[in-house]
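Hello forum,

I keep getting stuck at the same step: I have a sequence, I want structure tokens, and every attempt I make locally crashes halfway through. Rather than fight my setup again tonight, could one of you with a working pipeline run this one for me? It's a single chain of 119 residues.
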Amino acid sequence: MSNISPAVDSLVRDFASNLVAAIEADVARRLQGVLAAALGTPAASVAAPRRSVGRPARIARPARRRVKVSRELAQARKLQGQYLGALRGLKPADHARVKALAHEKSLPAAIKLAHSIKR
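Reply #2:
Ran it on my machine without issues. Output:
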């Protein structure tokens, strides 16, 4: 004999039977839909609800406030981009040489050296 109270046992049995009934009803509904589709008969009440296809609708977001960039910052970013582009494709030893020159002198000098190495 189990030590589960009769009330808990009754609740578990009711839940299990309800779950089985719900699963059987869902399977029956799906089977009806598949059979109706296979036979070519319209089964609007039987078919599962259709999902929309494709990308979901775009969610409206609040507009971002544009941050004003100073002329000096824009020039610094452009120079940094030129420097990184000049380093691309260099061999590790040349890369180290250009990087050392950038630290010693300036980025324009390092960019000039990197471009002369590439040629």
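Helices lie at 6-39, 71-87, 92-104, 107-118. If your local run keeps crashing, start a new thread with the error log.
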